[in-house]
Amino acid sequence: MKNMLITGGAGFIGANFTRYILQNDPQAQIVNLDLLTYAGSLENLRDLPDESRYTFVNGDICDRELIGRLINDHAINIIVHFAAETHVDRSIFGPSTFVQTNVIGAFTLLDAARKAWLEDKVVPVEQARFHHISTDEVFGSLQPEDPPFSETTPYAPRSPYAASKASSDHLALAYHHTYGLPVTITNCSNNYGPYQFPEKLIPLMIANALERKPLPVYGDGQQIRDWLHVEDHCEAIYRVLQNGRLGETYLVGGDNQTRNLDLVQTLCAIMDEVRPGAPHTDLIRFVPDRPGHDRRYAIDASKIHAELGWAPRHNLRDGLRQTVQWYLDHPQWIEAIRDQGGYQDWIERNYAQRTEERS
Fold it and tell me: Could you list the residue range(s) of the whole structural domain that residue 81 is in?
């Protein structure tokens, strides 16, 4: 039996992973721990498959007593740690929250797992696994001629968000090497797909395009990202949980590098097809860039492909089309998310300083 604690399971990737496990692993029992901050919502968890195997707990990953109790009471032998502050722009405005959640929260979980599995023997340690979800942003920024990030790329974080995730990566590996905690890590590229909080690039563009609002593009729009469909990411995590080597890091990418401006133009072309009228590219507005904006990310996912047989199933065009259609089919989800957690206040705060339009 797999008794799984998913942290941040009401967020974008965590909610998709919860659905993936309930659909694909009939033995798994899930405890979902989420503080339900602005990016986590129970709207993401409506109509789950087989809810008899699912328990939701509203709580903080920094609450050591709560974490210990959940591991003991539910005989947790797998922890999948998604819970994190993830938006670079928010980390620029308020870095302390990112340190608290991403560093102290990861430490609290790791140390609670160490005590439960290695000292108290709540479950046999050979059946236990702590899987930590991280990001390609810990590696910094690539120049156009640089090779993609790999598992041996030195860390060089350039934002408070990236630095906080790099810290948690180091803690996770330190707990493996020092205590023998059964740890694995995945560093992923930019995710997209259903249930993504609409302050992120793709859902923001879709939501604004639906209402014929401006589509803000930072700087010159030439920043390059690799885009990973969230369903492909969930499958990759599951492969690592099943067969990944302890103490190892696996990079997970979508093999879909594109410039931000090209991505927005592709979304506009899809919107032109499904909502004909004036070209949606007319809505694009170039706004001042954010500080320290990394120019390019790219991932070499050959290790997870060679060792675990994983490869992304979605190409970018089809994945974007499916994502646009999901948002078209779920207008009530967009409205519910926008009405909670100060979403509109954040949008106004972030973009008020970006009113200068570039020609």
Answer: 2-197+228-255+293-316
pLDDT digits (tens, 9 = 90+) for 77-110: 999 999 998 777 788 888 999 999 999 999 999 9
Any domain includes 334? no
Which residue among the candidates 161, 192, 238, 297 is catalytic per the annotation? Answer: 161
Of 34, 43, 60, 136, the catalytic one is 136
pLDDT digits (tens, 9 = 90+) for 240-289: 999 999 999 999 999 999 999 999 999 999 999 999 999 999 999 999 98
Does 284 fall in a domain?
A: no
The answer to whether position 203 is within a domain reads no
CA–CA gap between residue 107 and residue 64 (Å, rounded): 10
- Counted domains in the chain: 1
343 is catalytic: no
**What's the pTM?**
0.93
67/111 Cα distance (integer angstroms): 10
Q: Are 248 and 308 in contact (CB under 8 A)?
A: no
119 counts as catalytic: no
Q: Given 60, 137, 169, 199, which residue is catalytic?
A: 137
In terms of Cα–Cα distance, which of 23, 25, 18, 19 is closest to 2? 25
Q: Answer yes or no: are the C-beta atoms of 123 and 70 closer than 8 Å.
A: no
Q: Is 181 helix (H, G, I), strand (E, B) or coil?
A: coil
